[in-house]
Design brief:
352 residues; alpha+beta; five-stranded antiparallel sheet; four-stranded antiparallel sheet; 14% strand; elongated
Length: 352
């Protein structure tokens, strides 16, 4: 609805048309300056009822944003991660991802739509021409900018239209909470669980291939055997997480070939047990060189000397492989005499 459609008695007495005057071309200025078109009043500039409707519409959009933000948080808390729903035409999708994307999209869109509608219908829409000025800011320019800021504050009508202001502030306050809530998806703090595995005093060493407890006689000199803790079921839900920390490689050396004193004390008749998890990025170590007693990680070629405390002799690994102290129980089976004394795998922030 333009000013031409409004009843004549609602129009202001005078309208500014000077800025729409057309310049005249001459020899010095061969192109006429068309200037700006005459300013047309909006219906909100003339009718306070229309302005109120625009205010309510903007406030409604901000309110919808607040509700969508609350819905985002509620969906994050209440919808299971593994739940899926059928959404046409996408098919089966994650219910949590769909809910989070929809609510966050609505929250952000309605804030933007509210801001645009506010600017288009309630803020001043006069087009002004500002002549070029020197780059440096003169005191007069700074005062002009300050006055324009104050004028913009008055024209935004924040002080007058409290409903609009309060709902906008509410929407802008709640939307950042979506980012705070998403921080929860970074996962729980590791606490001390990275320091501990399933190994404990008395746990039998079970062959990974046969699933039978190991006796010293099962380990030949120069052989490489992989073991897991007693009671760890391959079909258990947490098997992958637990074996990633507890996987063991067992090698039998001649006791005279063991150079490290602690390694010898923690072994049994030359049988040493070390973590199978490389201390570089956690790859499983599986290559053993019988003559040198070196084990090699196939991912980045970190090499460890099992005859000298599994220290690093080549590659990017930062520290030696953790050793598990072992012995033999009354029935003649190899058993752990405790857990690893340091975290298994790559170094992490809590290592100490």
């Amino acid at each position: 609805m333009s000013s031409q459609d409004m009843p004549e008695e609602n129009l202001p007495a005078e309208q500014d048309t000077t800025h729409g005057a057309v310049g005249v071309a001459d020899e010095k200025h061969p192109f006429a300056d068309p200037g700006l078109p005459p300013h047309e009043l909006r219906v909100q500039d003339i009718d306070e009822r229309a302005a109120k409707r625009s205010e309510r519409a903007v406030s409604l959009l901000f309110t919808v944003s607040m509700l969508a933000t609350i819905g985002f948080i509620a969906a994050f808390v209440s919808i299971p991660v593994d739940k899926s729903v059928y959404i046409f035409p996408f098919g089966h999708v994650s219910a949590l991802n769909f809910a989070l994307g929809t609510t966050l999209g609505v929250a952000l869109f309605t804030i933007g739509a509210g801001a645009v509608h506010w600017a288009r219908t309630l803020m001043s829409d006069h087009e002004l021409v500002q002549e070029r000025h020197p780059v440096e800011a003169s005191p007069e320019l700074r005062e002009t900018i300050h006055e324009e800021w104050r004028q913009g504050s008055r024209e935004s009508q924040l002080g007058r239209r409290k409903l609009l202001r309060n709902t906008m502030l509410g929407a802008l306050t709640l939307v950042p909470l979506t980012g705070v809530v998403l921080l929860r998806d970074l996962g729980p703090l590791p606490g001390t669980k990275l320091r501990h595995t399933l190994w404990s005093k008395g746990k039998l060493l079970v062959n990974m291939n046969t699933h039978e407890p190991l006796r010293p006689s099962d380990i030949a000199v120069g052989s490489l055997t992989f073991a897991k803790p007693e009671g760890l079921d391959e079909h258990a839900e947490d098997f992958n997480n637990e074996i990633a920390k507890a996987a063991l490689m067992i090698v039998r050396l001649q006791p005279g070939d063991i150079k490290d004193k602690r390694e010898l004390e923690w072994s049994h008749e030359g049988i040493v047990a070390y973590s199978k998890i490389c201390t570089h990025v956690g790859c499983p170590i599986s290559l053993y060189e019988q003559q040198t007693h070196h084990v090699l990680c196939p991912c980045h070629q970190s090499t460890f000397d099992l005859s000298d405390g599994a220290r690093v002799i080549f590659g990017p690994a930062g520290h030696a492989l953790p050793q598990l102290r072992i012995g033999v129980n009354d029935e003649g089976y190899l058993e752990a005499l405790g857990d690893f004394e340091e975290p298994v795998g790559p170094a992490f922030w809590e290592r100490g």
